[in-house]
Design brief:
This protein is of the alpha/beta class. The chain folds into three domains: about 5-90, Beta-grasp domain (Ubiquitin-like (UB roll)), CATH 3.10.20.30; about 105-195, Beta Barrel (Elongation Factor Tu (Ef-tu), domain 3); about 210-335, Rossmann fold. It has seven helices and 19 strands. The protein has helices spanning about 25-35, 70-75, 175-185, 220-230, 255-260, 295-300, 315-325; strands at about 5-10, 15-20, 50-55, 60, 80, 85, 90, 105-120, 120-125, 140-145, 150-155, 165-170, 190-195, 210-215, 240-245, 270-275, 285, 305-310, 335. Strands 11-10-13-8-9-12 form a six-stranded antiparallel sheet. Strand 8 (about 105-120) and strand 9 (about 120-125) form a beta hairpin. The two termini are about 30 Å apart.
């Protein structure tokens, strides 16, 4: 790599360009500069940030990311979230119509405490005095000691001015990141974070009702949106539905979260489902995939709501298909970021 810390990046066919640090991926550098390249997961899985390298050289952080199809690879396409510049570059990429509301920044956050919500899920609290703000529903990329690659974690708290950052995280059996957080991290430990990122943030410029759908730890951004609405009188008279799905009853904790809302100005209807029949012996509720609850609750009134959802890819795909294809909800009323 040349002995330079920044490189000029030109977007072929446009008047846009940006300066990118040698330590940044092309995607993060563009967003920091205010150039809106398309993205969702920012971690190599979704493929939204594909680009063609026209001139220059890059270092690939992930040689074979799942976000690239065999056809993409044959054409030499790359992912902006997995490419760092090693020289000035010219790239060909479409620009996103989603504007970046807050430019991401790097910051350091100190671990304060952890609150267990379910046997394998907890809410982690951090303090970061010198940090940017965020919008409810957004996420950060966190660097964890001894763990290769950054991990995407959505905030669960409403944005606060005191530098509080909270995350609901599920302890995955083979997850290197969650294993560190649940078993190795100690109070006072400091993590490097980068953000905020994400387009599935709460919109406040409509008067429609709100539907929140979460699967597993996809609950985190949904809770951030819920907590933000609870403190906002503009949502006081709107119908609000929260759907949460887990494998078994012990995975569900939404009722407790709703009960803990401080002086809420909203009323929330909570709907829960479990998907594993073997865990349903003492369960009086529905045993199904969580998206299957929506028609029973909403009837034919799907278009009356704005939708925010997060969870495993099969869940987000099923919700998107139901809402946008089966019930023809307009695109601008549907908000989600795909994670893998």
């Amino acid at each position: 790599m040349a002995d330079r810390e920044e490189f000029q990046i030109k977007l072929v066919g446009t008047n846009e360009g940006f300066v990118c640090s040698a330590k940044d991926t092309l995607l993060r550098g563009a967003l920091r500069y205010g150039v809106d390249l398309p993205y969702e997961c920012n971690s190599g899985g979704c493929g939204s940030c594909k680009f063609d390298l026209v001139e220059g050289d890059v270092e690939l952080l992930w040689e074979d990311p799942p976000g690239l199809s065999p056809r993409d690879k044959r054409k030499g396409r790359m992912l902006a979230c997995q490419a760092r510049p090693t020289s000035n570059c010219a790239i060909k990429s479409r620009l996103s119509s989603d504007r970046t509301p807050i430019r991401p920044e790097r910051f350091r956050a100190t671990f304060v405490n952890r609150t267990d919500l379910a046997p394998d899920m907890a809410e982690f609290s951090f303090e970061a005095k010198a940090s940017p703000t965020f919008l409810p529903g957004q996420f950060v990329l966190a660097s964890l000691p001894g763990v290769g690659g950054d991990r995407a974690y959505s905030m669960s708290n409403a944005p606060q001015q005191d530098g509080t950052w909270q995350f609901i995280i599920k302890n995955m059996p083979d997850g290197a990141g969650s294993n560190y957080l649940f078993t190795q991290m100690r109070q006072g430990d400091v993590l490097s974070m980068d953000g905020p990122f994400g387009h599935a943030y709460l919109r406040q410029d409509t008067d429609r009702g709100v539907v929140l759908v979460a699967g597993g730890s996809g609950l985190s951004p949904v809770v951030s949106i819920l907590r933000s609405m609870a403190a906002n009188p503009a949502f006081a008279d709107r119908p609000i539905h929260l759907f949460h799905g887990g494998r078994g009853p012990s995975d569900l904790c939404t009722s407790a979260i709703i009960d803990q809302l401080e002086d809420p100005t909203i009323s929330v209807d909570c709907h829960e489902a479990i998907s594993d029949p073997d865990l349903a012996q003492d369960w009086a509720g529905r045993c199904c995939f969580v998206h299957e609850l929506l028609p029973d609750v909403l009837g034919e009134n799907f278009a009356d709501f704005d939708y925010y959802f997060c969870g495993p890819p099969p869940m987000t795909e099923a919700v998107q298909r139901m809402v946008m294809v089966d019930y023809q909800v307009p695109f601008e009323q549907v908000h989600f970021d795909r994670f893998f």
